[in-house]
Amino acid sequence: MASADITVIILTHNEALHIERAIASVRSIAARVLVVDSGSTDDTIERARRAGGDILHNDWVNHATQFNWALDHGDIRTGWVMRLDADEVIEPDLAARIAAELPLQPADVAGISFARKHIFMGRWIRYGGRYPLMLLRLWRAGQGRVENRWMDEHVAVGGGRVITMPGGFADHNLHDLSAFIAKHNGYATLEAIDRLDERYALGLSDTPEAAAMPQQAGLKRWLKQRVYNRLPLGVGPLAYFLYRMIFRLGFLDGRAGLIYHALQGFWYRFLVDAKVLELEGELGKAGCQTAAERRALLSALTGHKLTAPGDEA
Questions:
Q1: First-last CA distance in the chain
Q2: How far apart are CA 280 and CA 40, in angstroms?
Q3: Where are the alpha helices (DSSP H) in the chain?
Q4: In the chain, what percentage of residues exceed pLDDT 90?
Q5: How far apart are CA 173 and CA 15, in angstroms?
Q6: Does domain 1-87 have CATH number 3.20.20.220?
Q7: Lower CB count within 10 Å: N or C terminus of the chain?
Q8: C-alpha 97: how far from its chain's center?
Q9: Pairwise CA distance, residues 119 & 124, whole Å
Q10: What is the pTM of this model?
């Protein structure tokens, strides 16, 4: 396959276990692979360079800020941009389809979504509503940005429509359960920040105007904001776990699926609720009255630098 007109951007921090596999999965279609590292202490950079990646460095704030920094500073000269996480792979059938069909896309196609599958403990999690997970990951250069959010940030495109391209696209993290739990503990803090931002209008998030994204992503966000986030403590996580296991047939995913759905569908969601309760309690005890005061306290409590336009650098 000839390389397509694509720059693939991969964000890394201590991804030595995954980075060569990720780059290899797009080598046949990428005109350039741009690896943006935020201070890895393992041999991620050496492995990425050996695999053919161009390396840039930038201090970490969050996924959205890092990726948009790459768009602005990556000297992108291709017609298309792809977002790929270090623990994801583009499988050969999808790579072949991209190479064959991308040059044929009409001018009104601004973005392309892929159906991502999740591999957990060596098993493809097919049920529980986890497949297909539609993610917009390929778009025309200059027409897409990542939403400015602390969690569940999506690529939003303007100036055209979004289509879906079938083929194999997998999230296959090779680390153990301890790493899975540690990662989701960090994600829970980020999602708690997002929820408090929504509740108190902290000015931390925005989505580009007139932006398009997969319909599935928009529906999930609407349900989370309008229904799920308003449920009493514990009700949402339990209902969601049962929905996944029973109504979306998660029990068919076997023992690995039970572990995954229990951790990702119940424990993680309950942890987010608990962190929101804890952080909101601290805001109340401190007597914060303004968005700036709440941002400053949440920054101290979470270790994340939470700023909005107008805050002092």
A1: 47
A2: 33
A3: 19-26, 44-50, 63-73, 92-101, 177-200, 215-226, 235-242, 254-260, 268-286, 291-302
A4: 87
A5: 10
A6: no
A7: C
A8: 23
A9: 4
A10: 0.93
